[in-house]
């Protein structure tokens, strides 16, 4: 009985270590990601085995068209960075970004800005089109200055790394 009492003090440190190891392994293979951007609620997001659809949150590598702006903004190209955004339009949906406003299926969704909050010129993807069978338009209405498909265009299914669901947000 005395021996068990001695090891009982190790229970919580070992429990914390075990949780840390499991989380580290899950983060290493991107089963879990931590989002700090306000485009979607900051928090921990879990990879789920689902197809991308309108309303789902996906993560994807920053598109090539966005690299010059990202580099000007951060000093890095962002080639290996991922963005977490909700899908606002998918295959068969009409997207129009020709003017100052984003329209999805004829509904006015958001303004398209020419400059960011630090007066840097934003890229602008200009089109009025129906998305193809493997195209998705990502857009966040959580913040006015979300850097999304209004500026770099639709993303393809092959660019999507995962569909995500929030596990814990703050």
Report the CATH architecture of the largest domain.
Ribbon
Which structural category do the helix and sheet elements fall into?
alpha+beta
CATH topology of the largest domain: Umud Fragment, subunit A
Number of strands: 11
Order of helices and strands: HHEEEHEEEEEEHEE
Can you give the helix content as a percent range?
A: 10-25%
Identify the overall geometry.
elongated
Spatial order of the strands forming the largest sheet: 1-2-11-3-4-9-10
**Largest sheet, strands/sense/barrel:** 7 strands, antiparallel
> Which ranges are low-confidence, i.e. pLDDT below 50, for 5 or more consecutive residues?
none
Strand fraction: 25-35%
Features:
single chain, 170 residues, alpha+beta, Umud Fragment, subunit A, 2 domains, 4-stranded antiparallel beta sheet
Compact summary:
By secondary structure, this protein is an alpha+beta fold.
Structural description of this entry:
This protein has helices at residues 2-8, 11-28, 67-74, 149-152; strands at 32-35, 43-48, 57-61, 82-89, 94-96, 101-104, 107-111, 128-130, 135-138, 155-156, 160-169. The chain is α+β, with helices and mostly antiparallel strands and 170 residues long. It has 2 domains: 1-30; 32-169, Umud Fragment, subunit A (Ribbon), CATH 2.10.109. A 7-stranded antiparallel sheet has the order 1-2-11-3-4-9-10. A 4-stranded antiparallel sheet has the order 7-6-5-8, with no helix packed on it. The N and C termini lie far apart (43 Å). The model has no long low-confidence stretch (mean pLDDT 92).
